[in-house]
C-alpha cells in the first residue's frame, strides 16, 4: 500500500540500494511532501562530523493535548547491512503515503509518535559505498590501541557493557566494544535522544541477515522479567511476516537465539530505559543481497513492525500527565490537586461537566495505574 508513487508512474526508490546522500534526499522529499507530518532533526554528529539524522512522523498535536507514546526504528548500526536502511525507509513511506487515505495508517500516525534514524552509523555507511562494501563498525580514528579503526556500535551501549563473552576488547576485532560504554558519538547520540524522549515505549533495531525477531537479553541466557510479553509480541511479529508470503522467522532472546551479545542496543533500551525493544535480522544469504530482495524484505516485515505502534497506542496513554511533560510523576498529582482546589474546569477528569470528588478519585486511580 506504499505503492501510490508507483501508481503515479514515479521511479521505485526501493528498486536498488541507496547511497548516504540519496537517503537524506528521500527524507527531505518526505518532509516536503507532508510538512504537517514529517520533521527532520539532528541528534548528534559522528567522528567525521557527519550529522546523525532523525525523522519524526506524527500528526499535528494541539497545544496541551496528551503526549503520544513513541516508537523508535533505527537501522544500519552495522555499516554493511544496507538492506536495513531500505526496509526502515519503507515503514516511514507507508505511514506518510497512506495517512489520510487509509484509516489504519491514519490512526497509527494520529496516536503514535514514530521516530526513524535510518542511518545510525553515517561514517561507516559512507565507507561501505566508497572503500569497503563489508565494513561493519563505525570509523573511530586511530590511534586506538594498535592503530586499529572502528568500534562495533552494537557492543558499545551501556547495559552490562563488556560483560562476558559477548564483545571483544581487541580493537582489531569486528566486535570491538570500544574503550568505555557510550565512548562513540553515534551511540551517545542515540542514548541522549532516548533520555530526552521519556514517552519512548517501543524500539526496533534493524540488522541483517538471518530471518529472526530478537528481544532481550543479549548479555545473559536468563529470561528477562518480561519474557512472556516479549514472546507474545515476537510470535505475533513472526506470524505477520509468515502471513505475507510464508517466510519463517525464528523468535527469541538474542543470547539463546543467535549468540551472546553484551553492550547491544536492545539490552540498553529495555534494561535501562524500560522500552519494548526488538531487533530484526532480515532475510538474505549475505550482507549484500541482490536488489531484487529489497522489496520482499520491506513488504513482508511492514505489518510486523507496525505492530509495535498498535501495541503502544492501545497500552499507553498520557491522560494523567497533567503537566504534559510525557512522564507521570508527583508533579502531576500536585498540579491536579491545585486545579481541583481552584475549581478549574481542567480538573473535570471524568468530563462530567463538574469538578467533584469523582474526578479526584478517577485521577488518582488513573495516575496509580499509569505511572
Ligand atoms: O552481532 C550482532 O550484533 C548481530 N548480528 S549481525 O550479523 N547483524 O552483526 C547479532 C546481535 C543481535 N542481533 C540483533 N540485535 N539484530
Ligand atoms: Zn548487524
Sheet with most strands: 8 strands, mixed
- Tell me, briefly, the overall form: globular
Mean pLDDT level: 95
Fraction of residues in H or I helices: 25-40%
The low-confidence parts are none
Which class of secondary structure composition applies to the elements?
A: alpha/beta
How much of the polypeptide forms β-strand, as a percent range? 5-15%
- The number of helical runs is 12
In total, how many beta strands?
A: 8
Bound molecules: N~2~-sulfamoyl-L-arginine, zinc ion
Cα-atom Rg, whole angstroms? Answer: 21 Å
The strand order across the widest sheet is 1-2-4-3-5-8-6-7
**N-to-C span:** 37 Å
The helix/strand order is HHEEEHHEHHEEHEHHEHHH
How does this model look, in words?
With 371 residues, this protein is an alpha/beta fold. It contains twelve helices and eight strands. The chain has an eight-stranded mixed sheet with strand order 1-2-4-3-5-8-6-7, sandwiched between helices. Strand 6, helix 7 (227-245) and strand 7 form a beta-alpha-beta unit. Helix 11 (330-341) packs antiparallel against helix 12 (357-370). It is globular, with a radius of gyration of 21 Å. 46% of the residues are buried. The protein binds N~2~-sulfamoyl-L-arginine (0X9) and zinc ion (ZN). N~2~-sulfamoyl-L-arginine binds at residues 78, 81, 154, 205, 207, 214, 218, 254, 258, 261, 264, 266, 279, 281.
Amino acid at each position: 500500500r506504499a505503492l501510490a508513487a508507483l501508481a503515479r508512474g514515479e521511479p521505485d526508490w526501493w528498486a536498488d540500494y541507496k547511497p548516504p546522500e540519496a537517503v537524506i534526499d528521500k527524507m527531505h522529499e518526505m518532509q516536503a511532501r507532508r510538512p504537517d507530518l514529517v520533521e527532520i532533526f539532528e541528534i548528534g554528529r559522528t567522528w567525521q562530523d557527519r550529522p546523525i539524522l532523525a525523522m519524526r512522523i506524527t500528526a499535528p498535536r494541539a497545544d496541551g493535548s496528551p503526549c503520544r507514546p513513541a516508537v523508535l526504528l533505527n537501522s544500519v548500526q552495522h555499516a554493511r547491512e544496507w538492506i536495513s536502511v531500505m526496509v526502515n525507509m519503507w515503514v516511514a513511506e507507508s505511514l506518510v503515503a497512506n495517512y489520510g487515505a487509509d484509516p489504519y495508517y491514519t490512526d497509527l500516525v494520529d496516536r503514535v509518535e514514530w521516530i526513524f534514524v535510518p542511518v545510525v552509523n553515517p561514517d561507516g555507511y559512507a565507507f561501505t559505498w566508497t572503500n569497503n562494501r563489508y565494513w561493519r563498525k563505525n570509523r573511530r580514528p586511530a590511534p586506538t590501541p594498535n592503530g586499529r579503526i572502528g568500534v562495533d556500535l552494537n557492543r558499545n551501549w551501556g547495559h552490562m557493557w563488556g560483560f562476558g563473552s559477548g564483545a571483544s576488547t581487541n580493537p582489531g576485532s569486528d566486535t570491538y566494544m570500544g574503550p568505555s560504554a557510550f565512548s562513540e558519538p553515534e551511540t551517545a547520540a542515540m542514548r541522549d535522544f532516548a533520555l530526552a524522549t521519556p514517552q519512548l515505549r517501543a524500539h526496533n533495531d534493524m540488522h541483517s541477515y538471518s530471518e529472526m525477531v530478537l528481544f532481550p537479553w543479549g548479555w545473559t541466557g536468563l529470561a528477562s522479567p518480561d519474557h512472556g510479553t516479549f514472546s507474545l509480541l515476537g510470535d505475533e511479529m513472526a506470524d505477520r511476516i509468515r502471513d505475507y508470503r510464508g517466510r519463517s522467522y525464528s523468535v527469541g532472546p538474542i543470547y539463546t537465539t543467535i549468540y551472546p551479545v553484551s553492550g547491544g542496543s536492545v539490552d540498553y533500551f529495555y534494561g535501562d530505559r524500560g522500552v519494548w525493544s526488538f531487533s530484526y535480522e532480515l532475510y538474505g544469504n549475505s550482507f549484500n543481497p541482490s536488489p531484487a530482495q529489497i522489496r520482499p524484505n520491506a513488504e513482508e516485515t511492514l505489518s510486523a513492525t507496525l505492530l509495535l505502534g498498535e501495541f503502544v497506542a492501545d497500552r499507553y496513554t498520557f491522560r494523567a500527565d497533567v503537566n504534559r511533560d510525557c512522564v507521570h510523576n508527583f508533579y502531576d498529582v500536585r498540579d491536579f490537586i491545585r486545579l481541583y482546589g481552584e475549581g478549574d474546569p481542567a480538573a473535570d477528569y471524568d468530563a462530567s461537566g463538574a469538578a467533584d470528588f469523582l474526578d479526584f478519585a478517577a485521577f488518582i486511580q488513573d495516575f496509580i495505574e499509569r505511572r
